[in-house]
Amino acid sequence: MSQEHVNLAPVQLGPIAVPTPVILSPMAGVTNWPFRVLCEEYGPDGLYVAEMVTARALVARNPKAFRLCRFAPSERVRSLQLYGVDPVIMERATRMVVDGGMADHIDLNFGCPVPKVTRRGGGSALPWKLDLFSELLRRVVAVCQPAGIPVTAKIRVGLDADHTTFLEAGRIAQEEGCAAVALHARTTAEYYGGHSDWERIGQLTQELSIPVFGNGDIWSAEDAEEMVRQTGCAGVEIGRGCQGRPWLFRDIANAFAGSSERVEPTLGQVGQIVARHARMLVEFYDGDEQMAVHDIRKHVAWYLKGFPVGGFTRRAFMECESLEDLGAQIALLPQDEPYPESVAAKPRGRVRYAKKVHLPQGWLDSRQTTHEEREALFGDDPMDASY
C-alpha cells in the first residue's frame, strides 16, 4: 500500500462548512447522541449522523422517534437521517424537522438492505423506482432549501449485480438538489458480506459534480486514505469500523493531517470510555439506568474485541443491570493490558449475507410505480410508526 500522504479538501454543503469530510455513518441502535459525542470528541470537524428516524413514526409523534432526534449541546452540526417510502409522509416529517428547528442537515436513507425495509420498497430497494425516488427527493429538498438545510442521500450500488442503480440514483439526486451523495459500495444482495467495490465509488465520483462520500470496509486510517487515493471521493463515511472504537476518528484525522500517530488505549482506558458512554446513555434514556446498561452491552462486546479477557468476563458484562454492576466489572479488568494490534485494522461486527433480496411483489417488472403499487406501499403499516 502506498505511503504517499493524501489530502482531503474541505466540503461545503449549502451553508454548512465541513472542514474535514469524514462522516460517522448512521447506524440503527448505535449512533444515538452518546456515541456521536464520543466520536466527535476524537474526530475532525466532520459530520456525525444520527441513526435512522422513520418518517411515519415522526409524523405519528412517537416518543422514541423524538428521542432519536435529540442532539447534545456539543454537537457542531445536527445531522439527522430520515427514512420513508411515501413522498407525502416524508415531506410532512421534513416539515416537522424544519419548522421545529430540529436539525441543520438531513440525510435520506436509500441504503438500508434489511429485509423488513426493502420488502416495503424502502431503503436500498427504492432507487429502482425512478419516479418514486425523484418525487421523494424533490419534496424533501423543496422543504429544506428555503431554510438553508442541505439534503444528502445515502445509496447502495443496486439491488444485485444485475440490477444496479447507483449511477442513475446519483444523477437524480444531483438534479433534484442534493448537496452530496454517499455510496456504500455493496449491493443489497451483498448485505455486509464480502468486500465493497471501491471502483464504483470512483465511477460515481467521475459522474457527478456534487461531492461523493465513499463508504464500505474502512477499518483503519490507512483504509480511509487508500479509499480517497483510489477513488478520488470527496470524503469517507465510517460505519462498522468505529463500533467499539470511537477513537478511529482521531486516527483518521491524524492520517489526513499527515501524522502517523494512532490511538492505542489500554484496557483500563477503554473501560473508562465504556463507563462514560454508559452514563451518557442513562441521560439519553431519561434516567432509565437499566435500559442504558442493556444498551451498552452490545458496545461492550465491540470495545473488548481482541482483548484477552475470556468468556467469563464477557458474560459478566452481559449480566449487568446497573451502573454499579458495570463499574464493578470495569474495575476487575487488567488495567494495563495493551491495545490488541491483532484486531486494530480488522472488520468489526458480524459479517452477514442476505440469502435473497426481499422486494414487494412485481417490484422488478418496471422502473416506474403503478397506482396499485403506490396504494400498497403507502397504506398504513403499524410497524412504520413504531420502534
From TrEMBL:
Keywords: Flavoprotein, FMN, NADP, Oxidoreductase, RNA-binding, tRNA processing, tRNA-binding. Its EC number is 1.3.1.-. Residues 364-387 are annotated as: Disordered. InterPro entries: Aldolase_TIM (IPR013785), DUS-like_FMN-bd (IPR035587), DUS_fam (IPR001269), DusB-like (IPR004652), tRNA-dHydroUridine_Synthase_C (IPR024036), tRNA_hU_synthase_CS (IPR018517). Coiled coil: none annotated. The keyword Nucleotide-binding does not apply. Residues 368-377 have a biased composition (Basic and acidic residues). It catalyses: a 5,6-dihydrouridine in tRNA + NADP(+) = a uridine in tRNA + NADPH + H(+); a 5,6-dihydrouridine in tRNA + NAD(+) = a uridine in tRNA + NADH + H(+). Residues 24-326 form the DUS-like FMN-binding domain. Its cofactor is FMN. Catalyzes the synthesis of 5,6-dihydrouridine (D), a modified base found in the D-loop of most tRNAs, via the reduction of the C5-C6 double bond in target uridines. Belongs to the dus family. PANTHER family: TRNA-DIHYDROURIDINE(47) SYNTHASE [NAD(P)(+)]-LIKE. This is tRNA-dihydrouridine synthase. It comes from Bombiscardovia nodaiensis. The lineage of its organism: Bacteria, Bacillati, Actinomycetota, Actinomycetes, Bifidobacteriales.
